[in-house]
Design a protein that fits this description.
Alpha-Beta Plaits; Arc Repressor Mutant, subunit A; 2 domains; 4-stranded antiparallel sheet; globular
């Protein structure tokens, strides 16, 4: 039985969901970002207990197919950005269409109608959050960050960063309060 779950954005989320199912004595064959597959059907009583625990932990079971697609889109984008391997010629439309085997315009329309933000805007917000993280960890310089996240230049990254945050990357690093947002809140 495949169960779709909202707000799973990292490996810790996978571990938390695995624990929820294990505590409910429900065996899973696989748990991925946004979904869990059980080895057998789950009784309504156990499913209700799992759903309650998911909510208590910040997750939510997704029943609606359009919301399932949206969660898959979000997870694909988060994974792509976390890989730090976005080519300069990367096209979000081709990436999502090939991964989900659906027309990009339909994906974009569904996403925008439900999330009140375009796919491109969501992608940019996710990239900016990753830039913030990388700046704070001091692992890479701005040129390396720009290259890893598919920006054509440091100037392009800096301009987009300033438009979103109101600060240049250098100004952001100097701030005492670094306004980072949880990925599931974007």
């Amino acid at each position: 039985m495949k169960i779709f779950i909202k707000n799973m954005v990292c490996n810790r989320c996978i571990a938390a969901v695995e624990t929820i199912f294990r505590n409910a004595d429900v065996k899973t064959s696989v748990v991925l970002l946004g979904e869990a597959e059980t080895e057998t059907e789950v009784s309504p009583e156990k499913m209700q207990a799992i759903e309650k625990e998911l909510l208590n932990t910040g997750f939510e079971r997704i029943m609606d197919s359009s919301h399932q697609i949206i969660e898959k889109i979000k997870n694909l984008i988060i994974i792509k950005i976390s890989d730090l391997d976005i080519a300069e010629d990367f096209l979000l439309s081709e990436f999502l269409s090939s991964k989900l085997h659906k027309d990009y315009s339909a994906l974009s329309k569904t996403f925008s109608q439900n999330e009140n933000i375009t796919l491109e805007q969501f992608f940019i917000l996710q990239k900016i959050e990753k830039v913030k993280e990388l700046l704070l960890y001091n692992e890479f310089n701005l040129t390396e960050i720009a290259g890893k996240l598919g920006y054509k230049s440091v100037q392009h990254l800096s301009s987009q960063f300033r438009n979103i945050t109101g600060f240049t990357p250098t100004e952001f690093k100097k701030l005492k309060e670094h306004n980072r947002k949880a990925l599931d809140n974007l």
